[in-house]
Structure formats: structure tokens, C-alpha cells
Amino acid sequence: xxxxxxxxxxxxxxDLGIAVVTFNQPDRLNxxxxxxxxxxxETLLQAQMDDAVRVVVFTGSGRAFCAGxxxxxxxxxxxxxKALVPDIPGGHRDPISTYEGLRALSQPxxxxxxxxxxxxxxxxxxxxxQTGLSLALACDFRFxxxxxxxxxxxxxxxxxxxxxxxxxxxxxxxxxxxxxFLMHHRIITAGEALEMGMVHxxxxxxxxxxxxxxxxxxxxxxxxxxxxxxxxxxxxxxxMTWAQSxxxxxxxxxxxxxxxxxxxxxxAFQEKRPAxxxxxxxxxx
Length: 285
Fold this sequence. Notes:
The protein is of the alpha/beta class. It has 11 helices and 11 strands.
């Protein structure tokens, strides 16, 4: 996949298959623009299709993870950033352009993260508001710096959380807590987010990336096919009936049971040694 500087973020990929997306506009609290969202969607598509990618990590620079959309009105600095895809004009000229802009340009970012078969981690280094919060919620794992603050805040402007935040919050913390959180436009500490079940762990800021990369390495070393199928089954089960969930996992098991990783896992257990998963991926590399 393409690495380097893009519109609003930088991308690196290490030998273990861990792709790190770093939002790099700290003077704007890493606020998002439509071109940035377009490039993020393309990056996630590349990550989905590239066997070299096993885990995707999102983090920010400066004192913010992402403080929402960029509403400064000032054009962002290019700093040699590459455009992965052409920009598409879109805005809030009228109701239908707002609807189409959300469905085609803004919401696809979180949809791409949620639909990504590879596992994703949000390293919430600082403020995560509205767009930044919903992006973190769309990830499979969330680790927060003790200095992070999380919230929606859209009602402060008379606006709605329009990028999937309510759905994701309800799945994580339930209807009642989501109602209180959004209606009172709360901005909470990382510790409060942990108590509510919004993040998996809170660590000192200087330890955040070490903790996240440790988690990423552990995930990258696991049996990738089974893990990707399991991720999809977990999210599907949250919206399925019991009978549908049983049938869905059975269909996926028909794939995983006959995969080389499964044979290696059983053999390693019998030989009382650690399993060497993903040899099929290493051979492709």
C-alpha cells in the first residue's frame, strides 16, 4: 500500500504488517477535511486488499487525536502531501447536498474502518471530539492517554452526530448512557470513558504508543484468517438473531477449519510448541 504524507495524515507500515495512520495537523487539532476523508477511505481500501497489512493503528499528533471536522475556513498546509484520489466538490449548499455529502464523503470513513477485515486500534493521544470520537469508536480496540478527553459536543452548535456515533455508542455503552452522553454534550476524561466501557484501557501519555504497539504486535502474530472471520462474526452477531448467528459462524468455520493455520494450530498443540501461524502469508511475501 502507499505510505508517506497524505492530506491530513501520514502513513507508515512496518515489517510485522502494522500500518500506523498519524493525523498530522496539530495546529488545527487534527480537524478533518473532505479531501482527508477521501484519502483515508482509499488508504483503508488498500489496507483491506494488501496482504502485507495485518493491523491498522490510528493516532494523532500534538494535543489532539482529532477534534472533529476542520471548521477554521483556512486551507490546510500541503507540506508535500500527496493526494491518493481526486477531490470531489461537496458541501452544505442545500439539504440534498448535505445528505449526499454525508453518505458519500464523510460516513464512508467510519464505514470503511468498521468493515475492514484487518483489526484496528485507536491510540487516543488527546482530544477526540465528534468526527474524531466516532472514528475511534469505529475501531476494534481503543486505548487512551490519561490526558485524553472524549465527547460529541454537536448540540453545542445545534448540530447532530452524523457519522455513526450514536449507533456505535449504543453498542458499547447502551441506550441510557448514550442518551445522557449526547443530550448533555458531555466531554469526559479518559478515566470516565474507561468506567463507561468506551475504551479498553487508559495509560500515561508517554506509554500510550508502546502499549498500543504491543497490542498490535500480538494481534499481528495471531492466525489472520480466523481472526478476520471472527471479527466479522462478532459484529454480525450484535445485530442478528440467535439462529442467524449460529448459521453465520458455521459458514465461516467451514473456511477456517480447512485453512493451513488450523492444521498448524492443532499440530503445534500436539507437539507442545508455540504455533507458527501465517506461514501462507510469509510465503507470499
